[in-house]
Amino acid sequence: MKKIEVGSLFLQEHRNLFQCPVCKGAFEKLDGHSVVCANGHRFDVSKKGTLHLLMKGGQNEYDKDMLSSRKNLADTGFFHPLLDAVYAHIDDPGSATVLDVGCGEGSHLHYLTEKGLRGTKIGFDISKDAIQLAAGNFFADAFWCVADLAHSPFGENAFDAILNIFSPSHYLEFDRVLKPGGKVIKVVPNAQYLIELREQLYALDTTKREYDNHQVVDRFCDIYPEAIKEELNYTVELDAKSYGWLMEMTPLSWGASEAALANAKANPLKSVTVAVTILVASKEN
Questions:
Q1: Binding site as annotated, residues for S-adenosyl-L-methionine
Q2: Does the model's pTM come out above 0.85?
Q3: Domain stop point among 49, 65, 84
Q4: Are residues 39 and 88 in the same domain?
Q5: Closest to 1 (Cα-Cα) out of 147, 111, 140, 175
Q6: Which of 68, 144, 250, 280 is the S-S candidate for 228 at Cβ 3.0 to 4.6 Å?
């Protein structure tokens, strides 16, 4: 089947996982390759098999080159230990219905699928470029859609797990779309995340060199008092290519001076620290 047909079939079988982002009503039918709600709002499946559910253009600072570099870096295994830890918190990975919030170019869901995540998976991002890359490289791993967390197009009590990896949160929305007992698994960088790169780029600027995740972690724990907090630290060896991809994909380079960037290019790091906090909480039954 063509990708547009596969995408349409997915929607036919899983309309309950979605809602109209305009009126919040249920999608009642599939009309050709379009999904339609009771109020007549219509959204078309693209030729790539994806669905665009933004009500207006989304704003995202990641361009195609940055997203491609992130995929290349992910392909080296850069995030694998982190994702192994995330996978360990997913109940029944062989059948769980999973929503990846801010999925980017799809590398995380791809790796988790290879690891054994076999249930129904949806990845969404506000970036159309990201979703096009995800569908182009990992079409079979998940259903990919362009959507905005602030105007969520997903159904109530629909998902067993939400993955929230290095992306914004909307806890009221998470609570709405999770099944009772479903899990939120959030990953945030901590103070040592990419510390070598931050020291290289911002040697004289402590405001940009230092990072504190306490506000994000405290907010999560306020929402979910029974949350589990897990710290993960590991070192990734870099060669010239992977260091270049890291520099191209990280927002850390955006505010660096020309002199700092030139120095970084002339003195590529040989390794870097990945240090994150993994937060896990369950929706009450």
A1: 79, 105-106, 193
A2: yes
A3: 49
A4: no
A5: 140
A6: 280
* Residue ranges at the known binding site: 20, 23, 37, 41, 79, 105-106, 193
**Residue positions forming the annotated binding site for Zn(2+):** 20, 23, 37, 41
Percent of the chain with pLDDT over 90: 86
Q: Is 41 exposed, middle or buried (0-12, 13-18, 19+ CB in 10 A)?
A: middle
- Check: CB of residue 177 under 8 Å from CB of residue 256: no
Kindly report the three-state secondary structure assignment for every residue of 100-123.
Answer: EECCCCCHHHHHHHHHCCCCCEEE
- 145, amino acid identity: C
Do residues 242 and 268 lie in contact, with contact meaning Cβ atoms separated by under 8 Å? no
Domain with 1, as residue range(s), is 1-49
Same domain, 131 and 67: yes
For 205-251, how does the pLDDT look when each residue is reduced to its tens digit (9 = 90+)? 776 777 889 999 999 999 999 999 999 999 999 999 999 999 999 98
* CATH number of the domain that residue 143 is part of: 3.40.50.150
